Amino acid sequence: MEDGGGSCSGIQTVCSAGPRTPNPDLKKLLVFKVYKRRWFVLLLVCLLNCSNATIWLTFAPVADQSAQYLSVTLEEINWLSLVYMVVAIPLSFGTTWMLDTFGLRITLILGSWLNMFGALVRFCGTPPGQSYSMQYAVVMLGQTLGALAQPLIIFTPTKLAALWFPDHQRATANMIASMSNPLGILLANIISPFVAKTSAQIPTLLVAYAVPTCIICFLATVGIRSSAPPMPPSASAESSGSEPFVQGLKLLLKNKAYLVLLLCFARSGVAVFTCFSTLLEQILCVQGYANDFAGLCGALFIVFGVVGAGALGLYVDKTKKFIEATKINMSFSALACIAFSVVSLVPHQKAAVAAVCSLLGLFGFAIFPVVMELSVECSVSCRRGHVGRTRLHIGVLLQQVQSVLYIILLQALTKPLADSPLSTCGDDILSWRVPMMVLAGLCTLFTCTFVIFFDTPYRRLEAEERAMYGTKQSNGSAPAEQASSEEA
Description:
Blueprint: H1 24-27, H2 38-56, H3 63-70, H4 74-101, H5 103-124, H6 132-154, H7 156-164, H8 170-195, H9 202-223, H10 235-238, H11 245-253, H12 256-285, H13 291-319, H14 322-343, H15 350-365, H16 367-379, H17 390-413, E1 415-416, E2 430-431, H18 433-453, H19 459-469, H20 479-487
Antiparallel strand pairs: 1-2
Helix pairs in contact: 2-5, 2-6, 2-7, 2-8, 2-9, 3-4, 4-5, 4-6, 4-17, 5-6, 5-9, 7-8, 8-13, 8-16, 12-13, 12-16, 12-17, 12-18, 13-15, 13-16, 14-15, 14-16, 14-18, 17-18
């Protein structure tokens, strides 16, 4: 029920078995409530994620033009994207501390200001006539400011869904907020090649990305009035604090399911996505594919990913089959990655390349929000009812490290080509045959590992069920003892 209506109730409980009928005594203790303003907060989180993603990937779809305008190499252009991952590694811990200490409102407002300043610095640092070395340094400074904003923004979808949305809308809200980042990448793949057809148009491209950041910063500053609603929407929201980091880290290191999810998805999911988004134009141009076509492939990758994520988010919201959905989609995304490693090396196959990019997005992107929810389900503390934010510390840290290492590794495995008659690249013509095969092999390896070894109970759903239906002792065991055993 919206604004003024509420239903069901709950208390912080232990994870023991319970009866299947609502406990009338528990209903009197707490009334849960949802508010219409949650959709406005969700909209702002989406706009911030989208804008920050366009800042991140501004130069990748027009790498050759950017390198020519700034008089640097393609490797240096790649570092304008890599700086996002490098900065996120040390900041991932501090960002989650900010979310728990200062709340969602302060974190989002700070992220919006950093995002705006980053975009403005990039534009102000690229006027014609300035020295090339200074131009690149100023652009890198702007990218770094945007990178500082990224952890403040990308951590928020799960926190927002937990604090503002009821249990039957959490996965959907998380999906919408999470997919706004790929939507920004989609816009970058479309706008950058369309605006910057020549190197002289790079400043125009930068101002096109700077204007929206100013509007979004204003909306966030004046529009976000509180970090959480006056009354919680669910039992887990009522007890959504974090355990201390060291304690949470110890629990996660003992959690086999979480470690398998983290290692496999960070390597086969996030790293592949980052490499694909950053290097797509450089891979395709060797076989004669133009920047416009590479941008189209990137757009198809995102569009089909958003469609798949929307459908899958609604499905798992209704069925709660997180594990089955993740395993099936990861398997198909591994097959799509193998197919891309083959067709991207063949000229005059636009239809095949576009189709494979679409399938890679459809199956690979669709599991992003589902995996985020699954990480909560397998790592939540049943005894305290906490949705431990420590998993986000470790998750983002490993994802960013793997992404940086993958891109550096793939670049190192390339070989210069003496001549490529079909190439639409600039002066640097590289063979991507070996890097693509290595990437496909790694993706397949970790997908197989996940499918075989991952299994977990849904701890948060169990905790909320106990809050709704009460608890029941079985075989003379005390509930506290059962909780201790399950958490261990």
